[in-house]
Specification:
It contains twelve helices and 13 strands. With about 425 residues, the protein is of the alpha+beta class. Strands 8-9-10-12-11-13 form a six-stranded mixed sheet. It has a five-stranded antiparallel sheet with strand order 4-3-7-6-5.
Length: about 425
Amino acid sequence: GISGPSLRAFVPVYDDSGKQVGVVVAGVLISSLSEQVRQSLVEMAELSLFGLAVGALGAAAVAYNIKTSIFGLEPSQIGAMLKERVAILQGIREGVIAVDDRSQITLLNKEAERLTGLGQEAIGKDVVSVLSNSRLPEIVATGMPEFDQEQLLQGRTILTNRVPIVVNGRVMGAVATFRDMSEIQELAGELTGVTNLAETLRAQAHEFVNRLHTVSGLLQLGKQEDAIAYIASTTRTHEEMVAFVTRRIREPSLAGLVLGKISAGNERGVTLNLDPDSNVPVHQRRTGNLDLVTVVGNLVENAFDAVASLPEERRNVWLSLYADDQEMLIEVEDTGIGIRDEDRTHLFERGFTTKSGGKGIGLSLVMQELFRVGGSVEMESREGVGSHFTVRIPKGGDSTRIPTRQEQRGGDANTASAGR
């Protein structure tokens, strides 16, 4: 066209009868189209840049929030930490069970599987439905921790700690860690053995210092022959005592305990008499290393306390130990002050004591050990006369009941029993 390059369209015009009566022509210059395209491109570029800027800011904000929520860690770091967490939880010796705020199990490690008998299929289930005495729902509800609680689980006595999981002041769940008490008692047994050995050596050292003073005095007086005779007599007496105890009690830990208690009794002015009919073959412990040491040690120590403040002629304790293929019998008798009737029902409760400054732990430990092995304890006591404790530990099968020393003597007394 005369105005320059353009785009044009020609359209015929018809009347009602279909006859062409004219033509409509429309056109637009190419220069006008180019300007419109340019303006559209500019607008699109501006909108694109604006959208890109908004998207970048939004992505940066989202990324910041995500990074904050995952503590700035990268995905590879999160994966590595998850693997480490699983390895640590599965490798520790304590059982671990965790629940969420709805008391559904979220975590169960291998040791927990072993102690509870559950499997990984328990994850996601309500803890009450698979472990009714876990007490984890109570921890979630109260938010209060519980430490060093004993409970019976699958026939095992376990020691459990339960703590709430708190995030930003809100209880999000709870976790329980627990361990088989028998393993803890084995460790305690080793410590108890070391403690008993140290106490025995201390008592013997004190005893021998007194004897050395006697020998020194005799030598200073010029009585060499008397000193030699005293040394020979003392050595012979000690050797005879050791030989007698080890001959009647062939369980090393128990024999060592008795020898230690004899020395400790001598230091306190108390005579511990071992029944000459005692007989304990080797390996008579029913379970673990702690059973007999704990039971005998605490009963003898209580007997010492009962007679320590009495006149010399009444400071006597008798110990009898006997074992056969079916049963272990332990008797501890003293001529102490006895136990009041109103105290007998509480005697084996943890924390109950009749001694000034006592902690009430000894007899509760005895009861705990006997409960664990299916044993029993009987107590006979008369105020002002003394007390007699009889412990029976079955070894399985149909037990043939061993008569006690009092029964052999034809004695009769009211008996208060406690046990399983």
